[in-house]
Amino acid sequence: MEKDQKHRLVDAGALQAFIRSVLRHSGLPEADAGTVAALMAEADLQGSDGHGVIRLPQYHKRLQTGGMNPRPNIRVVTERAAMAVVDGDNGMGHLVMSFAAKLAIEKARTAGVAWVGTRASNHAGPASLYARMPIEHDMIGMYFAVGNANHLPPWGGMEMLLSTNPIAVGIPSGSEPSVVLDMATTVAAYGKVKAKAKRGEAMPEGWMIDRQGRPLLDPTRAHEGFLLPIGGHKGYGLALIVGLLAGTLHGAAMGRDVVDFNQDHVTPTNTGQAILVIDLNAFGAPADFKQAVDKLVRDIHDSERMPGVERIWLPGEQSHARRAEYAAGIPIGATIVDELDQLADRLALEKLVCLTSS
Fold first, then answer.
1. Domain limits of the chain?
2. With 90 as the cut, is the pLDDT of residue 356 above it?
C-alpha cells in the first residue's frame, strides 16, 4: 500500500480547544468537555496518537447516536474502606476513569492501598494517563482495562473472544522521569492499527495474522485477521486475567459480551476498567523510595550496551521526550486533519488551526 508521511503541526492548546468545542457541540457540559479534551490532547502530546484526536469523530458519532451518554450520573455503587465499584452511566471513559482515579487516590491516603473498578464505562484513551495520576501524590498507579473490541482469539483458537486488554503502571521517581509502563497484552494495540490505516502505512510483520496464519500487513484488511498476543500463550493468559479483573469482577462486559465500538455506534459498551493505587507513605518515606528508583534508573542507563545501541530506554522515557519535543507542535496526520475539517464543517465550528505542514 502507498505510504503517506505527510503531517501538520498543531499547537497543544489549539488542539485541546478544538476537541472541547466539538464535545460541547456533542452535548457535554463545559467542565466535562474540558476534562476530556485535556486528556485527549495529552494523549497526542505524549505520542499516543492512536488514542488522541483521531478518536474524536468516532466519539462524536457515538454521542449523537446514543452510544454514549453526554450527561452521565457517575456514582459509587459498592464501597468499602479500600475498594469501590463505580457505575459510569455510559459516560465517556475519560470522565469515568478520572472519577475512579481520584476516588482511589483518596482511599489510598487512608488505607495505604485502594482498588476502584468501573462498569458502564467507555473507551478512555491511553492507559498511561490514569497510571500517571497517582504519581503526583507520591503514589504508585496500576491500571487495567477491557478493550473496546475483541481482536484476539484464545491461544490455538479462531474466535476472537479477547481484546488488547491493556496494563499500565506509573512509579514515582525523584529527579529522573517517572517510570511509566503502558502496554497492550497484544503485540500492538488496535489503536496503532487504526493510526497506520489513517496514515496509509503498512503494519510491521508480527502485529497481525490472517485466518490461515499468514502475516497480515495491510491495516485496511485488519478485519480479515487478528492481533497476536505478546509472548505467545503467555500473552493470551495475561489478556484473559486482565479482562477478568477489569471487567468480570465489576459486572462489565467480557468475552462475547464485548461490543465492537469501531463497528457499532449505538450499543452501550459496558466497558470495565480498574485502578490500583499504592501510597508510598504507607511503606516509608517517599523520598527514600524515589531516590532508590533514581539510582536504579541510572544504573540501567549506565549499564553495558549491545553493539550499535546508543541508549537503553526505560518505560515512559520516550513519551516524556515527546512531550518536550511536541511543545513546539504536535504532528497530526494530514488525512486526520482533513477528517477533522470535515467534522468542523458539518458542525459549523471553527476548524483546527495548524502551525505548519510537511
1. 1-65+326-358, 72-186+229-302
2. no
Query: Would you state the pLDDT for residue 284?
Result: 97
CATH of segment(s) 1-65+326-358: 1.10.1530.10
Strand bridging mode 208-210 / 225-227: antiparallel
Question: What percentage of the chain has pLDDT greater than the value 90?
Answer: 92
Single-letter code of the amino acid located at 178: S
Task: Compute CA 35 distance to the chain's CA centroid, rounded to the nearest angstrom.
Answer: 15
Question: 28-54, pLDDT tens digit by residue?
Answer: 999 999 999 999 999 999 999 889 999
CA torsion angle 115 241 48 197 (round to 10): -150
Sheet holding 7-10, edge to edge: 330-333, 7-10, 356-357
For the whole prediction, is pTM greater than 0.85? Answer: yes
At residue 99's C-alpha, the angle toward residues 98 and 103, to 5°, is 115
HSE at residue 131, side-chain half, CA atoms within 13 A, is: 23
CB 353 within 8 A of CB 17: no
Spatial CB neighbours of 140, under 8 Å, sequence gap ≥ 6: 134, 169, 170, 171, 172, 277, 278, 280
Let me know if domain 72-186+229-302 sits in CATH 3.30.1370.60: yes
Q: Once rounded to an integer, what is the mean pLDDT over residues 178-199?
A: 91
